[in-house]
Amino acid sequence: MKKQLGLLTLGMALCLVVPVVGQATGKGPDSKATITIENDIKKQERIIHGSPDFNFGTLEMDTSVSTNTIRTNSSGSLEVENKDGGQGWEVGVEADEFTNDGQTLNYESFSIPLNSNGVSGDPGEHQMPEPNGTINVKTGGRILVSKDGAVGTFNYEMEQAELAVFSNQQAEGLYTANLTWRMGDYVK
Asked: How confident is the model at residue 22 (pLDDT cuts 50, 70, 90)?
């Protein structure tokens, strides 16, 4: 099925509940969020079919340390398709701020580590696309790279993601962030 270019919005869970002082009690609410996917307008042959969800659940804030860290496994994988074999390509991702009713979460990093065995698919005559290393989604970066333009559909199963939250003066509540995934030409 041919996908249309442009902006595609999918559901994605990226949430965090952070109490200001003391320990959180009980189970936090289920999370909801959105994801924005942008396909390369110049290359209709490149499509992002799906992306993983990250639900960090509830973080019991420890104010005796400067940073609290929480980890989660992704649900789902990054699925991309390239039909154009002449040009290298890459997939990048960047997160908006985590917000809750006008409050912004003060966090250090949101990282997805490298999973060197996480890519599957058949690249044909080309090399298998490679994960680009651990990235801090807060500042954005390349997560998957095919320098020689591998043709086919590829899935990338990501390792456990990590969110490092500063402990100072965090308002309690459910925080959500949007991730923007882009697939475009490989840039050296």
From this structure: very low
Q: Is residue 154 included in any domain, yes or no?
A: yes
Rounded CA gap, 37 and 25, in Å? Answer: 35
Q: So what's the pLDDT on residue 81?
A: 92
Q: What secondary structure does DSSP assign to 70-112, as a single string?
A: EEE-EES-EEEEE--TTS-EEEEEEE---EETTEE--EEEEEE
Q: What is the maximum alpha-carbon separation in the chain?
A: 57
pLDDT tens digits, 76-99: 899 999 987 778 999 999 998 999
The domain in which residue 156 lies consists of 7-185
116 located within any domain = yes
The answer as to whether 1 is a domain residue is no
Is residue 79 within 8 A of residue 109, CB to CB? The reply is no
- Say how many domains are in the chain: 1
Alpha helices (runs of H) in the chain, residue ranges in sequence order? none
**Strands, sheet with 135-136, edge to edge from the N-terminal-most edge strand:** 67-72, 161-166, 107-112, 135-136
Question: Is the residue at 71 inside a domain?
Answer: yes
